[in-house]
Amino acid sequence: MSASSLRYDWTREEIRAIHDASALELVYRAATIHRAHHDPREVQVCRLISIKTGGCPEDCGYCSQSARYATGVAAQPLMDKAEVIAIAERAKSNGVSRVCMGAAWRSVRDDAQFEAVLDLVRSVNALGVEVCCTLGMLTEAQARRLEEAGLYAYNHNLDTSREYYRQVTTTRSYDDRLETLANVRKTGVTLCAGGILGLGESVDDRIGLLHTLATMQPHPESVPVNILTRVPGTPLASQADVSLWETLRVIATARIIMPRSVIRLSAGRTQLSEEAQALCFLAGANSIFSSDAKMMLTKVSPTNDYDEDARLLAMLGLHPRSPFKEGCAVNAEPRAAATHA
Ligand code: SAM
Ligand code: SF4
User: Fold this and answer.
1) Run means of pLDDT, 10 residues per run, the chain, 341 residues
2) If you measure from the C-alpha of residue 326 to the centroid of ligand 1, how many angstroms do you get, rounded to a whole number?
3) Ligand found nearest the CA of 172
4) In a domain, 2, yes or no
5) Eight-state DSSP code of residue 66
């Protein structure tokens, strides 16, 4: 494949062959492709805000917010608007260019809470950062309302392969997930879809997930690579560690097969040393989540903080990326660009 071509017809065998190449050859190839499509000095810093925490009816086996598991995460009401805006403003002043608002919902309902989320989207969008939401399943009409409010991206992770999905979540299907992604794709909102390593899946399951993502046309503009945060009380609390080499292989393979997507090194980054993170950036990861609360999503999911990340990026000669520079083909324009002038 030339450094500049985009392909949507990858086979599982081709992806497996890329993934299984010798580690240094794989990283070299991914780094070369990364440089052809992205500024390798840029890393997008994102802030995830859990605007509605806990009490979720779904049974995702990894999740601290499922009401089915005793994880110590209490259900809370929708976060106050002033609090969300204050967090988003602090985030922006710390170099964050994407703010993602997450809700522990199975799906969005057309109710007062959705109206409140639309209001939050408008207000955070007015700060001039990319606004992302992850609210569960979504209809096309709801996706359009989010788009009208200024939503830039919608996150909906596939988590793993179609074959392994039922080992992780039984309260919805893989096709339900794909349907929401298709609904978002009918709008101008960009797609953020990825998975989790360490759920007990095989390498073939990782290839299956990458295959599903890389055969979407267009590719998701964002591909989060999460490493399982083992949450006591969940069915997946005792899963084995994921080695750096496994993580690196998935990042590098994603970079090679989806060259223009932003690869987001997301949950579980606190498990990686600075040297390990540097290797992930070299292999094509170009986004991280950071916070001033040492918390990715809930009190049981840690993340690195703004100051330590600023130090790490500076040491590596990297800098935070400005908003609205998505690499993918169809949705490259800023949302309502005039409001960000
Ligand atoms: N309820 C929404 C949904 O299911 O789409 C939002 C879910 S959560 C905020 C977003 C994503 O975080 C999940 O889809 C999952 O991929 C990831 N995640 C949640 N808990 C995790 C954990 N313990 N370890 C790694 N990733 C996790
Ligand atoms: Fe609910 Fe989302 Fe957690 Fe699943 S991942 S239990 S849908 S909050």
Assistant:
1) 75 98 97 96 96 95 95 93 96 96 96 97 96 97 97 98 98 97 97 98 98 98 96 96 97 98 93 95 96 70 85 96 67 34 26
2) 22
3) 2
4) no
5) B
295: containing domain: 11-18+25-323
- 329 lies in a domain? no
The active-site residue out of 29, 46, 47, 60 is 60
Q: Which of 340, 297, 307 lies closest to 79, judged by CA?
A: 297
- What is the tally of structural domains in the chain? 1
**Rounded Cα distance, 98 and 155, in Å:** 12
Cα–Cα distance measured from residue 219 to residue 221, given in angstroms and rounded to the nearest whole number: 6
Task: Work out whether strand 130-134 and strand 262-265 pair parallel, antiparallel, or are unpaired.
Answer: unpaired
Residue 317 lies in a domain: yes
Largest distance between two CA atoms of the chain? 53
Please say whether the beta carbons of 195 and 160 come within 8 A. Answer: yes
Query: Which domain CATH number covers 216?
Result: 3.20.20.70
> Does any domain span residue 328?
no
Query: Annotated catalytic, 56?
Result: yes
- Among candidate residues 218, 260, 246, the one with its CA nearest the CA of residue 37: 260
Torsion, CA 160, CA 225, CA 37, CA 42, rounded to 10: 170
